[in-house]
Write a structure and sequence with these properties.
Blueprint (H helix, E strand, L loop, with lengths): L1 H46 L3 H19 L5 H23 L5 H16 L1 H24 L11 H56 L3 H18 L11 H11 L11 H4 L7 H7 L2 H14 L6 H11 L20 H16 L10 H10 L7 H9 L1 H8 L3
Helix pairs in contact: 1-2, 1-3, 1-4, 2-3, 3-4, 4-5, 4-6, 5-6, 7-8, 7-13, 7-16, 8-12, 11-12, 12-13, 13-14
């Protein structure tokens, strides 16, 4: 249940990511290409002595440009401000220039931009606002409250026909936008499910060959997520360990031993300790794992979680002091993902029963990890482990 909830939160995070990308693109487009429309609009307004339109256009363009380049402001705040600004621009142009101006065009843009950047609920709310706006303007026009220019030029009957057409087209825009977004969200959800199923299937393949229990993968996933989440609070990793990174490394961590599928059963399933020759063969499994994931990665455009999977599978047996394998990397030359999973993997191995060893208690495993600080493990990662060791104990079910 918890994993399903976390998967749902991750999907929502992905949706928010794409909405932010769309929002940034829209405001950047308006800031750059809007300048092309802004200049002639200002010149025409000044020529026709429509100084209030010139002021309105200038203020709108300045705010749009600010929304495009002030990236520190949360995108939802920028999207709300931008949508509200576009709506008020549409209303102002309707009142100042009448229905033949660009007012209704900006009101169409209001519904479209609100839906794309803020979601389906915002799309429906913007539609309701536009409908109420058309109704209110019609009654104000019919009652004679509006000044004798702009909207009054065409008369209330003509305005009614234009308003009905506007509402119909606005409904089509909102419905189309919602259908598109529903399809996009469904596609994103299916992609996420396929990704998780693929990784879990690969991990299970190695697990079945190595006679591990299903709880092993669950614990590795949970330990990695705990450790990475706390490490993200450290100043040096605050910008590097993003939410995407935390989710991807947790999922990739269960692929750490995928390379064992390339090890012969006589060695992999041996009940007793391995001979030096057998251990030499076993030390090849990180190379096999990195090669397997590397083949998958070749068919994927752009950076993917398989990059982390390859790092983890290939380097989780490296040691901080440089005496590990397969490449003898040391210190920060070892990828961060591999340094994290190195500690997680050893902890879980220590507390787990094997044919050739008993399961250790959490406290016994803790002492071994402390002893290997600065030798096998990154000192900072050991320190972070000690900060949250009770959570490790809870996940392990240990004493």
């Amino acid at each position: 249940m918890r994993e399903e909830r976390e998967a749902g939160q991750y999907l929502e995070h992905k949706i928010q990511f794409w909405r932010k990308r769309i929002s940034d693109s829209i405001f950047l487009f308006l800031a750059v290409f809007g300048f092309i429309a802004y200049i002639p609009s200002i010149l025409l307004s000044l020529k026709d002595h429509l100084y209030y339109v010139a002021v309105l256009d200038t203020a709108t363009y300045v705010i749009i440009a600010a929304l495009a380049f002030l990236k520190r402001v949360p995108y939802t705040v920028r999207a709300i401000i931008g949508s509200a600004l576009i709506y008020h621009l549409g209303i102002a142009l309707l009142l100042l220039l009448g229905p033949t101006g660009a007012g209704n065009l900006w009101l169409f843009a209001f519904s479209l931009i609100a839906g794309l950047t803020l979601g389906q609920r915002a799309s429906l709310i913007s539609l309701a606002i536009n409908v109420m706006t058309q109704i209110i303007l019609y009654f104000l026009l019919r009652s004679g409250i509006l000044p004798d220019h702009g909207l009054r030029v065409m008369g209330s009957d003509v305005w009614l026909i234009r308003g009905v057409n506007f509402i119909i087209l606005n409904v089509i825009i909102v419905i189309s936008n919602n259908i598109f977004m529903n399809g996009f969200i469904q596609m994103l959800s299916q992609s996420e499910e396929t990704r998780r199923a693929t990784i879990m299937g690969l991990a299970k393949l190695a697990e079945y060959r190595d006679r591990d229990t299903g709880d092993h993968l669950r614990r590795i996933f949970s330990y990695t997520k705990l450790l990475t989440g706390r490490l993200a609070l450290r100043e040096e990793y605050r910008g590097y360990i993003t939410r995407d990174y935390r989710e991807d490394i947790a999922l990739s961590s269960i692929l750490h031993d995928i390379g064992k599928v390339g090890i012969h059963d006589a060695i992999l399933l041996k009940d007793g300790p391995l001979t030096p020759e057998e251990f030499g063969i076993m030390k090849n499994h990180p190379l096999f794992g990195a090669a397997v994931i590397g083949e998958i990665e070749k068919n994927i455009n752009g950076r993917s979680l398989y990059v982390l999977g390859k790092e983890i599978a290939g380097h989780h047996h490296e040691r901080w002091d440089g005496t590990g394998y397969p490449d003898g990397l040391a210190g920060r030359d070892i990828p961060l993902s591999a340094r994290i999973v190195a500690l997680v993997d050893v902890y879980d191995a220590l507390i787990s029963e094997r044919p050739y060893k008993r399961a250790m208690s959490h406290d016994e495993a803790r002492e071994i990890i402390i002893a290997e600080r600065g030798k096998q493990f990154d000192p900072l990662i050991v320190d972070v482990f000690l900060e949250i060791e009770e959570e490790f104990r809870r996940v392990s079910g240990g004493e």
